[in-house]
Write a structure and sequence with these properties.
mainly alpha; globular
């Protein structure tokens, strides 16, 4: 150790995140957990990660250069909160909230149903788990994921809604979608 404190334990290790790196990590984790199947419990983690990835890419797409633009107005005595998952997706459909040249998101009925099911039925149940027994049929889960992942891919890559300032970030996203498509057995 030197007198300047260059020892790693003295300097400390830091986890640094922003909305984009968080979304990328969630997408990579989704592909990882699905790759760990057939253990059914992995669907829980994949659902949580995919929901967070979609939410994160939607926030990244609509925030522009003003981080506060994705916060709800402050309520008396409360801190401002992030806009909802559904509000972020709604804004991603509106060109007024996007970078110039970005293609607004459009959702098919199949994608909307998949998102509603993944979010309301599964993600919310996992995040706010109430004491009970819960049996979930997972045989149709891959189809739900393919629909939701297709929408996520358009948010993250195809519609130029997200600005990548590091080429490695965009490569990581592309690789995660390739991994996800591979483990789901179809293009995501």
């Amino acid at each position: 150790m030197t007198a300047k404190g260059s020892d790693q334990s003295e300097r400390g290790d830091w986890l640094r995140l922003d909305e984009l790196t968080n979304a990328i990590d969630n997408l990579e984790m989704c592909a990882h957990f699905i790759g760990e199947l057939p253990h059914p419990i992995r669907w829980k983690w994949a659902i949580l990660a995919l929901h967070q990835a979609i939410y994160g890419f939607a926030i990244t797409a609509v925030k522009g250069t003003d981080d506060s633009s994705v916060l709800e107005p402050a309520k008396p005595g409360k801190e401002r909160r992030l806009i909802s998952f559904w509000e972020a997706l709604r804004r991603a459909e509106d060109p007024r909230f996007l970078w110039p040249g970005a293609t607004p998101l459009s959702q098919t009925q199949e994608e909307r149903r998949a998102l509603e099911k993944l979010s309301a039925e599964f993600r919310n149940g996992f995040e706010h788990f109430q004491p009970a027994g819960w049996s979930i049929e997972v045989s149709g889960m891959a189809a739900l994921f393919r629909s939701a992942a297709g929408l996520c891919r358009r948010l993250a890559l195809d519609h130029e809604m997200v600005r990548y300032y590091e080429s490695d970030d965009q490569k990581r996203v592309s690789k995660a979608f390739m991994n996800l498509a591979s483990v789901l057995g179809s293009a995501a």
